[in-house]
Specification:
By secondary structure, the chain is an alpha/beta fold. The chain is built from twelve helices and 13 strands.
Length: 317
């Protein structure tokens, strides 16, 4: 297995009209979750991925499971809970590029993940363990599951990749910052945004954010700069990768998950750091041009075409 991750995926209802959701009468139905967004992105690029989670024993759970499985992600470590529902959420497009998200995930099946749900051998057989700051915010038992996975990864020398992905509305604990930093200290690769750097370190300067994470022990930090691309730093190298110009931002939600898929895919394909981060920027931009979290994730042919549009003939064969 190339990449294994832990987290909640929900059913997404998106209004088919723009404007306040109170006026919506029709919704499209998709699935979305930070971790599976990234795993599906990696799967489309030819990598082997696995997902650890819980779903309700309900029709929404069936929808999530069949979709993730259909995208080529291994679901052998996904269990079902007959006493808790699969989470749902709604996406509201107020106007182009301005999206509000409304979650209904309290007491969901995924929030009942616990450390006994983490199989040591499943982690052991991965090259990377991919984590976000969302899962430990769902519940105390989820937090224990995350730290158990970290323990197993450390035991077997599995590289840990961490996207802080801080959702303040989810955190009921006053020690959110402390928990996020505890995970960051264990991570080999960290993929923060500037807002997360401000929350954790009181700065939105990408160089200073990177320095803080490197001092915690990370070997690679890639700070997402939105449309401006990304800043990356290792112990021996640093630089900025420019963003990709897109004509219109349709839905920015999920772009960061696409960025993570791109960076990880680049590393798995043995690209150098700059090239891997550049791939991340490209996929993040592609995701933002499509309505939905996973609908804009490319395969390698589409990715090459986007990154090298002059090579249309090569990628269309």
């Amino acid at each position: 297995m190339d990449v294994v991750s832990i987290g909640e995926t929900m059913v997404l209802f998106t209004s088919e009209m723009q404007g306040l959701m109170r006026y919506a009468r029709n919704f499209s139905v998709k699935i979305a979750g930070a971790e599976t967004n990234t795993l599906i992105g990696l799967s489309r690029l030819g990598h082997q991925t696995g997902w650890i989670s819980k779903l309700g024993q309900d029709e929404f759970g069936e929808l999530v499971l069949s979709t993730v499985r259909g995208e080529g992600v291994n679901i052998s470590e996904v269990t079902r809970d007959s006493s808790s529902p699969t989470g749902i959420f709604f996406k509201e497009f107020l106007h182009d590029g301005h999206v509000r998200v409304h979650y209904y995930r309290a007491h969901s099946a995924a929030s009942r993940l616990e450390k006994r749900d983490i199989d040591e051998n499943y982690i052991r057989n991965a090259k990377y363990l991919y984590l976000t700051g969302i899962t430990p915010a769902l519940s105390g038992s989820c937090r224990e599951a995350v730290f158990t996975a970290i323990e197993y990864a450390k035991k077997y020398g599995i590289q840990i990749v961490f996207d802080p992905n801080i959702r303040k509305k989810l955190w009921k604990d006053a020690n959110a910052k402390e928990i996020i930093l505890r995970i960051a200290k264990e991570a080999d690769i960290v993929l923060p945004g500037m807002g997360e750097g401000d929350f954790l370190f009181g700065t939105s300067n990408p160089e200073m954010i990177s320095e803080h994470f490197l001092n915690l022990g990370s070997r690679l930090v890639a700070v997402k700069l939105g449309a401006d691309g990304a800043y990356f730093a290792t112990e021996n190298e640093k630089g900025t990768v420019s963003g990709y110009k897109i004509h219109r931002v349709i839905d920015p939600v999920g772009a960061g998950d696409g960025f993570a898929a791109g960076v990880l895919s680049g590393l798995l394909d043995h690209l150098n750091t700059r090239e891997a981060v550049q791939r991340g920027c490209a996929i993040g931009a592609m995701v933002a041009t499509v309505n939905g979290d996973i609908e804009g994730l490319p395969d390698k042919k589409l990715l090459r075409k986007f990154m090298n549009p002059e090579n249309v003939d090569e990628v269309s064969r």
